[in-house]
Design brief:
The protein has 432 residues and is mostly helical. The protein has 20 helices and no strands.
């Protein structure tokens, strides 16, 4: 009996650390690393002690091969990158362990997804209300003002509030159906509107597109709640239109209308170049192209040019910041950055065609399994409430036509690989 109590206590602690991941992402990298490390160490000890079974399938094999290959590709480029990057590539194995550990615990019934959904309700609601408060009052609930013209809420000097809400929003939205017994459909409606409006006023333009993209996918596949989702989506769009028409901005924040004009920077400098009669027509055309190219597009071109130097093996972990300067002379409009700002280009540049095809087959296999699980649903509502938000969030996260953060940083990487690890839900019995 004492042993059972000890076993249950450890399992409860593991679950607590798991659903604290969204909370740790609000605090900072140090807390994220501590939380993730404790979760992995205790989970591995628990798995070993209880001899939990592990389904070694081709999906896991692909992912294991990919992480091993990251180390190999970085080692191959050690002369240029240095051993520091090789050591960092080894530490990336924590994300592989996160995927494997979550899968083992889920399959054996030792990890309760509902707690993660519950914590997402709390954190997404808090961040959303905090950013909306900052929009209305000029400061958030902790007294922070907008930072450099952006409403960042609790994240102070980092404009990631919209990204946080967008990533965890579907877990919170569907968590409301799991958590609340009374008026849950009303709360479901309010959750969608709250998240969408908060992302909008946060002015994270890509996150705003992605959260609306998620809602549109729900309209297509979420037949059980289509009417409510459509109503909430319409309400959030109407509120956004109202705000963009009536918002006048403030002394330190531009009006929403100005922030949402488009994703391209339409600069007056182009017109000034045309008015300069001392420049010949060829130089004017070059200057036009240089100014009007969207900065992320310029980074994408740079990543492709740099990738061509090592197309098969790749340039190694975090190599873009080191090697991008070597290709700036090849064409106009190329610029350097810390990373390519796109997951697919980051993998292609750093780990070459080998790493790219490993991850491509891995992603396609997950999509296939999720789709097969969705089609085989026998109107089991509880499992449906887990599978749908996880599947849609995963699809939106890996969507190739978007700008992204780095795939393996502490904050962004933890969220990305948490989402990927949650796709293990397709292995569960539909009675989950």
């Amino acid at each position: 009996m004492f042993l059972n109590k000890k076993k249950n206590s450890l399992n409860n602690l593991i679950n607590f650390l798991f659903y604290m991941i969204p909370v740790s992402c609000l605090i900072g990298s140090l807390v994220i690393n501590i939380n993730l490390s404790l979760f992995l160490i205790l989970s591995i000890a628990y798995i070993k002690k209880n001899q939990l079974r592990f389904n070694f399938n081709y999906t896991n094999t692909l992912l294991i091969c990919f992480f091993i290959y990251i180390i190999f590709a970085t080692f191959f480029n050690t002369k240029i990158l240095g051993y520091e990057y090789l050591i960092k590539s080894v530490f990336l194995l924590r994300f592989l362990l996160l995927y494997l550990v979550v899968e083992i615990l889920l399959i054996n019934g030792n990890l309760k997804l509902k707690y993660l959904f519950y914590s997402s309700i709390a954190t997404v609601s808090f961040v959303s209300i905090d950013i909306i408060t900052q929009y209305i009052l000029g400061y958030n609930m902790l007294g922070f003002a907008p930072w450099e013209g952006r409403r960042t809420g609790i994240f102070t000097s980092e404009g990631i509030g919209g990204s946080y809400i967008q990533r965890f929003s579907l877990f919170a939205i569907f968590g409301s159906l799991l958590f609340f017994k009374k008026k849950k459909l009303l709360i479901f409606f309010i959750s969608i509107v709250l998240a969408c409006v908060a992302v909008f006023v946060a002015s994270n333009k890509m996150s705003f597109l992605l959260i609306n993209f998620s809602i549109l996918i729900l309209l297509l596949v979420g037949k059980n709640y289509r009417l409510i989702v459509a109503s909430a989506f319409t309400a959030s769009i109407l509120i956004s239109i109202f705000l963009i028409i009536n918002d006048k901005g403030s002394s330190n924040v531009h009006p929403l209308k100005n922030q949402y004009k488009n994703f391209y920077r339409l600069l007056i400098a182009t017109e000034k170049v045309v008015e300069n009669n001392n420049l010949d027509s060829e130089k004017i055309e070059i200057k036009k192209r240089s100014i009007n190219l969207f900065s992320h597009t310029r980074i994408y071109y740079t990543a492709i040019e740099s990738w061509k130097n090592q197309p098969v093996i790749g340039n190694g972990h975090k190599s873009f910041r080191v090697k991008c300067k070597n290709v700036l002379h090849k064409r106009e409009n190329l610029i350097c950055s810390t990373h390519p700002h796109n997951y697919q280009l980051e993998i292609l540049h750093n780990y070459g065609l080998i790493g790219f095809f490993l991850t491509l087959i891995f992603a396609l296999s997950i999509i296939y399994k999720l789709f097969r699980s969705y089609l085989s649903l026998n109107k089991n509502e509880k499992f449906y409430l887990y599978l749908l938000p996880i599947g849609v969030t995963f699809l939106v996260e890996i969507w190739p036509l978007k700008s992204t953060g780095m795939l393996f940083t502490t904050w962004n990487g933890t969220i990305v690989w948490l989402i990927i690890s949650l796709t293990s839900v397709f292995n569960l019995n539909k009675k989950y």
